[in-house]
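Inputs:
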Amino acid sequence: MNNNRILAVGSVALDSVKTPFGKAREVLGGSATYFSASARFFAPVSVVAVVGQDFPKKYLNLIKGLGVDVRGIETDKGKTFRWEGLYEYDLNNPRTLKTELNVFQSFKPKLSSENKKCPFVFLANIDPDLQRFVLRQMKRVRLSACDTMNYWIENKRPSLKRLLGSVKIFLCNDSEARELSGEYNLVRAAKGILRQGPELVVIKKGEHGVICFSKDFLFLAPAYLLEKVFDPTGAGDSFAGGFVGYLTRSPHLSEPAVRRAVIYGSVLASYNVESFSVNRLAKLKLSGIETRYGQFKNLTRF
Amino acid sequence: MNNNRILAVGSVALDSVKTPFGKAREVLGGSATYFSASARFFAPVSVVAVVGQDFPKKYLNLIKGLGVDVRGIETDKGKTFRWEGLYEYDLNNPRTLKTELNVFQSFKPKLSSENKKCPFVFLANIDPDLQRFVLRQMKRVRLSACDTMNYWIENKRPSLKRLLGSVKIFLCNDSEARELSGEYNLVRAAKGILRQGPELVVIKKGEHGVICFSKDFLFLAPAYLLEKVFDPTGAGDSFAGGFVGYLTRSPHLSEPAVRRAVIYGSVLASYNVESFSVNRLAKLKLSGIETRYGQFKNLTRF
């Protein structure tokens, strides 16, 4: 058992996406997919998810080929979770055309004895009751992080609040932070969320960068500027992959490590949006990550 | 004659503003006002503008009290330029309720022989034909900067293009950059504008910070995070004041100086939005500017 393995629980999906630059039909997507395709550069990753019988074998092989442990991906009777989205020129906000939960609807992740022992866990955006169900199964968690979405804030607020009391890192986007806290101003929103439990609140603002709040410090990072954002799908989860991945080196969340982790997350997200699906992340090398990390220094120093 | 004096040509106005936090009626505003209240920390400033006979003497004294040369502010027959705006929770985008140009309508700035010799000039958002008219009167300009707005992009594009061929620094917000260039992506937008002449294109994104483009480098700066943005009016012009003000020390636009200038601009803008009118800027001290500059380092280092 690796002492830095990350358990990623979330979706493995088939996405159909249209952007101003092209379209893709039923390509590999899902929060756990994007997360693990990014986090694998920093630590071994085990995915727990569910797919349907129609899930293409080539996609399972693709994830496996990235060095990710896919034994926790169950195949259930029925169809795979599908998402269909449209991005217009404002690439920060997709329009969801269709969501078919399919097998994901009855997803109730039971962890293998191996997975229960992972010291790191990323709970991607799923029902907060399930996120807590996973967390309770884990035996020696050193660092836990979770994401969520407006749907759970609106429909499962008490469960989400309980979850916030037991995770160390909470990641969300700016509108989610506002909705969860009832504060428009992001400083006040983050302070409100920090009071509910997490040590870190990471607010992802898409093309406008990331704000990372702790009780002791505040870090602002711009997004990497690209001449072409091809497809923003998965940007948040690939950010989380780089961020949590890097933090396996500093589970006590030292301030310098957290700052660097935000930049590594931003680097992974920036590569991810250069193509549909995980195509760019699958080809990425560590040297590419380090190069862009250096560019971030250059873009922001004064 | 100071060898670092800045000439600021633009509006001196009476603003009525409503924000989620309060309202102000007929307070001192205008682009030249905000610019000079900020730039004065770095270099002597002379303002050229026009007001009406109803312009309160106390406001003229207020500007003068900041050490700004107001001899170029003419008083014309008629009423002062008035703007009325409403900000809702999304403080980045004001809703203009009323614009009364009044004496500003026939503003045709003729420079005194002293003002013609200023080595630095900021041409705030006015008709690009007037901006060029001012620039042509100047005898030994070392550094020129201008701003504009969507109205001129839509109605005076050829004039604006000619202006871009003769200024060194162009400042605008993100939607103006997009409209002027016809490119949604800001990298491509900035490249398009750089090809029209300026050495620097500075895109102001409000609460999302600033992107500064030159042919040789790119600099990204976040905005200072405030727990309360009281009134965003004048943020862009106070940014310009800090930015151009600092650059009087480096008229050749050395890369390190430009980067620092962006941060000084952001510091001034962040103070400005803490109150209505120039109230906060009027009370500001150099030590406050240096403190927040240091905080910017701390907020962004990794």
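Chain A has a mean pLDDT of 96. Flag for discussion at group meeting.
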